[in-house]
UniProtKB/TrEMBL annotation:
Residues holding heme b: 342
GO cellular component: cytoplasm
Any one GO MF annotation of this record: indoleamine 2,3-dioxygenase activity
Organism: Mesembrinibis cayennensis
Name of the protein in its database record: I23O2 dioxygenase
The organism's taxonomic lineage, starting at the top: Eukaryota, Metazoa, Chordata, Craniata, Vertebrata
Keywords: Dioxygenase, Heme, Immunity, Iron, Metal-binding, Oxidoreductase, Tryptophan catabolism
């Protein structure tokens, strides 16, 4: 909905509920379901045992014995999201059980057909995405609010840490998402005081996201992330280990290619970029826009609504208000700092970890197989989403900085 296009009074130009956004949790699914209805027991059983099944190389045979279940008993968004989470994790385990040298060309019908149907119902692609891995994959361990994941893959505590720290970054963004909505309303109403406050809140929220991201060092071991976890987030588009994509048996005779999980699939930074009028290079923009196809459609619509709203940057420039200008630049600076810190994390968890893994590979007696932690080499310089990771991240950080208003 475009700001001010109706006569009826809505509390905000962009009511969050219209975009399946929560006041408390933002883009996270509030209190996701942790169990599917009884008919889907066979899926849940396999999903809860994934790390062991993959480590013992038994997942593929378990999937082959799995009954083909109809998706017609799934009711409502929460059940569909849990089904997508479960089927996407099983799919990643099935694909990468034997590492990058042991991939398969076909996803069997009893997994491919229901996964496709659930994906169609949600408007998501049939692959593990940020919407599954983080947004719908959390539960409270106990009444104190300690968090845990619902479904896991190999990687133990480091995988758990990776998912939950990413979740905390999403949670830290929530005041910023609300500030985006308030800022747009303030522009429409020419309320400079509210706009100034909203921009201060946005800058603070982005700073809190950086603080949350720093916890990655405490909970995720780089060697485990690189050698064990990363392959299970890899897709079959722009991946040398699966150059032809994947045939979804019973869905299509032609192989299909989808990108793996990527931080670029998080709606948060897309929303902030659109509000602040950040313009990235053609190549980076093309990749980021492709990643929007991996977001739940209502979240994508939220980003689009911000893009269509009156321009914040133009408003600040034409106001000639030095305070607004400074608050705007504070937001851009915080966003550039967040992206710089993301590069620091990626350097530690991918570049440095890759160099160490390469050195270990050169040592005699190198163990084989993903369960033994043999690091993948196909994506040494690429992100799991298929981007050339460092050139992409640095370009996006630099173009963010260029979004500052010069005095």
């Amino acid at each position: 909905m475009e700001a001010g296009d109706g006569t009826e009074e809505t509390p905000l130009p962009l009511p969050l509920t219209r975009f399946q956004l929560s006041e408390e949790y933002g883009f996270l699914l509030p209190d996701p379901l942790t169990e599917l209805p009884a008919p889907y027991g066979p899926w849940m059983e396999i999903a809860h045992d994934l790390p062991q099944l993959i480590a013992s190389h038994r997942l593929r045979s378990q999937v082959h014995q799995m009954p083909q279940l109809s998706t017609q008993h799934l009711r409502g968004r929460e059940e569909l999201h849990l089904a997508h989470l479960v089927l996407s994790f099983i799919t990643m385990g099935y694909l990468w059980q034997e590492g990058e040298e042991g991939t398969v060309k076909v996803l069997p019908r009893n997994l491919a057909v229901p996964f496709w149907e659930v994906s169609q119902a949600l408007g998501l692609p049939p692959i593990l995405s940020h919407a599954d891995f983080v947004l719908a994959n959390w539960k409270r361990k106990n009444p104190n609010g300690n968090l845990d994941t619902i479904i896991s893959l190999p990687g133990g505590e480091s995988l758990r840490g990776f998912i939950l720290v990413t979740l905390l970054v999403e949670k830290a963004a929530v005041p910023g998402i609300k500030a985006v909505v308030q800022a747009i309303r303030a522009i429409v109403q020419l309320d400079e005081e509210t706009l100034h406050k909203a921009l201060q809140e946005l800058a603070e929220a982005i700073g809190d996201m950086s603080k949350a991201l720093k916890q990655m060092h405490d909970y995720v071991d780089p060697a485990v992330f690189y050698a064990v976890i990363r392959i299970f987030l890899s897709g079959w588009k722009d991946n040398p280990a699966m150059p032809d994509g994947l045939i979804y048996e019973g869905v299509s005779d032609e192989p299909m290619a989808y990108s793996g999980g990527s931080a670029a699939q998080s709606t948060v930074l897309h929303a902030f970029d659109e509000l602040l009028g950040i313009r990235h290079s053609e190549e980076s923009t093309a990749f980021l826009h492709r990643m929007r196809g991996y977001m739940p459609p209502p979240h994508r619509a939220f980003v689009e609504a911000i893009r269509r709203a009156p321009s914040l940057k133009q408003h600040v420039l034409s106001s000639g208000d030095a305070r607004l200008c400074a608050a705007f630049n504070q937001c851009v600076s915080a966003l550039a700092d967040f992206r710089s810190y993301h590069i620091t994390i990626v350097t530690k968890y991918i570049a440095v970890a890759a160099a160490k893994a390469k050195a270990r590979r050169a040592e005699p007696g190198d163990r084989a197989g993903p369960s033994a932690g043999k690091p993948p080499s196909a994506l040494e310089a690429k992100g799991t989403g298929g981007s050339h990771i460092f050139s992409f991240l640095k370009s996006v950080r630099d173009t963010t900085r260029e979004g500052m208003i010069s005095a």
